[in-house]
Design goal:
By secondary structure, this protein is of the alpha+beta class. The protein has helices spanning 17-26, 30-41, 97-112, 115-124; strands spanning 4-6, 9-16, 47-50, 53-58, 69-76, 80-88, 127-129. It has one domain (4-129). It is 32% helix and 28% strand. Strands 1, 2, 3, 4, 5, 6 and 7 form a 7-stranded mixed beta sheet that branches. The longest helix has 16 residues, at 97-112.
């Protein structure tokens, strides 16, 4: 189980099944996922899309964020982050209105889900918690996103 610690907050970080496939295909590390949430916890959100949905840019391996990946995340500050959708900037410019509405609905559902519903989804393989090095991940807020 991942507990992402910042001053006054404990954030659990999750991936939907489709997002887990994207993360694997793009070789995005758990540390990179956690860094994106660390930035959000510090108020560094690339785009707030409403209803708890945010967009965070993530660097591609060996490159910067500008041409990298985009992730749509259901996010409740200090509580829960759910990576719902991702795409490589090189493959598409953005997401259309209908798809955005669908992703927002999925994100809202997971943000509102009970702990029992999350445990059931994890057990069935449709939802997974992010781990960092197979252990609890603790990040000092002063180091979040500073490459340390």
């Amino acid at each position: 189980m991942l507990w992402f610690l910042l001053p006054g907050s404990i954030v659990r970080v999750f991936l939907t099944k489709s997002m887990a496939r994207f993360v694997g295909r793009e070789e995005i590390s758990d540390a990179s996922l956690c860094e994106a949430i660390g930035r959000a916890e510090r108020g560094l959100i690339d785009t707030a899309l409403g209803s708890g949905l945010i967009k965070q840019r993530m660097a591609r391996r060996g490159r910067g964020k500008s041409g990298g990946n985009r992730t749509l995340i259901g996010y409740l500050r200090g509580d829960r982050a759910v990576f719902v959708f991702g795409f490589a900037k090189k493959d598409r410019e953005g997401i259309n209105t209908d798809a955005l509405a669908f992703v927002r609905g999925v994100a809202t559902g997971w943000l509102d889900a009970s702990d029992a519903a999350i445990e059931f989804a994890q057990a069935s393989g449709t939802f997974q918690e992010v781990f960092h090095g197979g252990e609890e991940f603790k990040m000092d807020w002063r180091d979040a996103g500073n490459g340390r």
